[in-house]
Amino acid sequence: MKNDRKIKWGILGTAKIATAHVIPGLKRANLCEVSAIASRDGDKAKTAANQFAIPKYYSSYEQLLEDPEIEAIYIPLPNHLHAEWSKKALEAGKHVLCEKPLALTVDEVHELIKVRDKSKHKIGEAFMVHTHPQWLKAKSLIRNPKFGGLQAIQGFFSYNNRDPENVRNKYDRGGGGLWDIGCYPVHTSRFMFGEEPEKVLARFIYDSKFNVDKMVSAILQFPSGHACFTSSTQIVPWQTMHFFGEKQRVEIEIPFNQPGDFPSKLLIDDGSDVTGVPEEIVIPPADQYAIQGDEFSRAVLENLEVPVPLEDTLYNTAVINALFRSGESGTWETPHV
After folding, report:
1. What is the pLDDT of residues 287-329, one digit of tens each?
2. Which ranges in 97-163 belong to alpha helices (H)?
3. C-alpha distances in angstroms, 186 versus 10, 35, 192, 219, 323?
4. How confident is the model at residue 126, as a pLDDT?
5. 3-class SS at 337?
6. Mind giving me the DSSP string for 242-265?
7. By three-state DSSP, how is residue 297 classified?
8. Helices 183-193, 133-143: crossing angle, 10 deg rounding
9. pLDDT per position as a tens digit, 241-297
10. Fewest CB within a 10 Å sphere: which of 22, 71, 115, 195?
11. Left (φ > 0), alpha (ψ -120 to 50) or beta: where does 176 sit?
């Protein structure tokens, strides 16, 4: 089914993720029209509107939600505000695409599910990697009988940010490495296994000044195998994800922050020659933020399920909560939804 109509989007905030990635992606998308932007600082909203040629700007979030022309809201606010403003947007009759983590507790997700079902509007979590062609290709390789069944995942995701004013280093705003980037290997491990972890184990290192986790190493035990990862906010920036089966392994070279103007590369081999060169599978450049916007808009236009629905968010949140409990208890913890 082809749609000639575009969904009219409103942007609830001027955070860097919005101005650097999502707004440019939505403007390049086929089914999206960025029609308004809001900030509690009217000057910031005006500046962003001028920068991106957005027709309307508002000096409060409430004004944007009251705009009858806006159909979908994108929320890039600090983590502790995600659930609150997602609920308000749904209650205002808008579809919602909210940055990860969409919620910090499973209770928040359950409340959002109730509001979603009552409002009859779409809501999804903005894991842009979920629809990226390199991830879809990697999943197809792993599902191939030649791979030998997925049994182990190893991941790493890090950056170095010691800025005390950065929201990622503020405990009361849902800061810390696990919520910010550790959520990606959690989400993608669940996505690739196609299962939910039965129990998890984690060890944390906390920043004594910021009181947020600066490093976490974790094991997720799935019915079919294990996923292990480390994420950190205060070491050399790096990212990679490896997937191991009985017969083959697949590596995603740049799994999370793949540039939209740069080809993606998957590496695959059978391990028979440790000095050999893996086969390279090159995927043409893809704007994962444009794809995310189009897939969400298509779900609205054609009444389809959004790529990352609240049911997925529920389990991802439960796993992250269990990882924090494991860090405190020092033992395995079971995710509870």
Report:
1. 999 999 999 999 999 999 999 999 999 999 999 999 999 999 9
2. 106-119, 133-143
3. 29, 33, 10, 10, 10
4. 98
5. coil
6. EEEESS-EEEESS-SS--TTS-EE
7. helix
8. 40
9. 999 999 999 999 999 999 999 999 999 999 998 888 999 999 999 999 999 999 999
10. 195
11. left
Q: What tens digit of pLDDT does each residue of 83-92 get?
A: 999 999 999 9
Strand partners of residue 160: 234
Write the single-letter amino acid at 245.
G
Residue 216: φ, ψ to 5°: -140, 135
Q: Is the whole model's pTM more than 0.70, yes or no?
A: yes
Instruction: Give the model's pLDDT for residue 1.
Output: 46
Query: CA 321 to CA 199: how far, in whole Å?
Result: 12
- Evaluate the omega torsion of the peptide bond into residue 101 and state whether it is cis, within 30 degrees of 0: yes
Identify the structural domains of the chain with CATH numbers, from first to last: 7-128+290-306 (3.40.50.720), 133-285+318-329 (3.30.360.10)
The single-letter code of the amino acid at 303 is: N
